[in-house]
Amino acid sequence: MKFYDYTDKVLKYLRRYIIHEFNRTEMQIRTDELNIIPKTVDLYDRLYDEAIKAFLKIAKHKYKECDGTDTIEIAWLMGLLKDANPITGYIFVNDEDRKRQYYTESLLSGGDVSRETKKAMRYLYGSFKEYADIVTNEAAMKAYSDTGTEFVQWNTAEDCRVCEDCREKDGHIYPINHAPVKPHYGCRCYFTKVN
């Protein structure tokens, strides 16, 4: 089983959910243009709530898969999502308002509803995908740390999209407390414990 298999499975569900909810809201907006703001607020609240549930499932699964001795709690996840992330450059929980406002403003300014909806779906899914990968990695690192692992090994996704920075790190071993931060958005590298 590959490191991100379960994450990818949950992301497929999340993608379908995003498409369904945006399409439903788009139909409502077309018939009730006076309530764009409350409809988009409700949409983004539902989507972010569902994403947090999905991230918690991912974290619990990865933690258990990596032999974690404890459990992952929602407080751990929310702490992770409330911190500024060096890869994305923003804070996940603050991003909901930013993305919602952008979508709402594009609709209020007379933008093409279908085009703006597709763009908003793409941006939101990209963000959820990146954070699902971050949660997966952080849950694994928490499991390693909780079980007393002292060293971890950098592993690439071993596909044609591996960048030069990541290729150079592939196979290198680091003290768990000094493991390097992923160098870029969309990085699918991961750490495994070294016994």
Care to describe what's here?
By secondary structure, the protein is mainly α. It is built from 6 helices and 3 strands; from the N terminus they run αααααβαββ. It has 2 domains: 144 residues; 47 residues, no CATH class. The radius of gyration is 19 Å and the shape is elongated. The mean pLDDT is 93.
Features:
3 strands, mainly alpha, 63% helix, three-stranded antiparallel sheet, 195 residues
Layout of helices and strands:
Blueprint: H1 5-31, H2 36-65, H3 74-82, H4 92-108, H5 113-146, E1 151-155, H6 164-169, E2 173-175, E3 190-194
Antiparallel strand pairs: 1-2, 1-3
Total discrete domains:
2
Helix content: 55-70%
Give, in spatial order, the strands making up the sheet with the most strands.
Answer: 2-1-3
The biggest beta sheet reads: 3 strands, antiparallel
What is the number of strand segments? 3
Structural class by sheet pairing and helices: mainly alpha
> Cα-atom Rg, whole angstroms?
19 Å
Instruction: Give helix and strand order, one letter per element, not per position.
Output: HHHHHEHEE
By DSSP (H or I, 4+ residues per run), the number of helices equals 6
Strand content: 5-15%
Low-confidence stretches: none
Tell me the distance between the termini.
20 Å
What would you call the shape?
elongated
